[in-house]
Amino acid sequence: METKQIWANLSVKDLERTHEFYTKLGFKPNGEFSKENGLVSFLVGQDEFVVHFFLEKNLKPSMGGEIADLDQGNEIMFTLSADSREEVDEWAEIVKKAGSDLFSKPQTIQGNKNWYGCSFADPDGHKWNVFYNGK
Questions:
Q1: Is 44 in the same domain as 12?
Q2: What is d(CA 56, CA 84) in angstroms, rounded to the nearest whole number?
Q3: Which PROSITE patterns match (predicted)?
Q4: What are phi and psi of 36, to 5 degrees?
Q5: Residue 12 belongs to what domain range?
Q6: Burial call 43-63: b when 16+ CB within 10 Å, e when fewer
Q7: Which among 40, 58, 108, 131 could bridge 117 via Cys, Cβ 3.0 to 4.6 Å?
Q8: Mean of all residue pLDDT scores within the chain
Q9: Pair (45, 84) in one structural domain
Q10: Which residues pair with 81 in a beta bridge?
Q11: Going by C-beta distance under 8 Å and a sequence separation of 6 or more, which residues neighbour residue 99?
């Protein structure tokens, strides 16, 4: 069997807030935004990785259990690749302007002078990092 596509399904508490945040980051909308369908979706990166954000109450029945409380722990961290240290710094500014704080400011990662990145959480606590590998 061959997998044709993979996408992420995440829960959120406020679709409008999520739509506004990711639009400010420059993510490409995947279809028209409508609160009525209980979902907002974006295409991320050159391969257009699909990330669906469902209202928590709509996603929970299909999860087979509780949805993680991101105030108490973590679920996953998505990584966005950057082409330079300057691009990482630009992402950090865009994230701040969109209304999120960085929980890891732009910096060298794990002592490797070629690795540089920053990390942030969206309004619901889903974590992302921006990473540059200067090899």
A1: yes
A2: 36
A3: VOC
A4: -60, -30
A5: 1-57
A6: bbeeeeeebbbbbbeebeeee
A7: 131
A8: 94
A9: no
A10: 131
A11: 21, 24, 123
Which parts of the chain sit beneath pLDDT 50? Answer: none
Q: What pLDDT digit, counting tens, does each position of 37-58 carry?
A: 889 999 999 999 999 999 999 9
Q: Token pair of 14, please?
A: 């406020």
Cβ-based neighbour number of residue 92 at 10 Å = 19
Domain containing residue 96: CATH number: 3.10.180.10
* 106: its two tokens: 């732009």
Domain assignment present for 66:
no
Q: How many structural domains is the chain composed of? A: 2
Is residue 46 located within the same domain as residue 84? no
Identify the helix (H) or strand (E) that includes residue 29: strand 28-29
Cα separation, 71 vs 69, in Å, equals 5
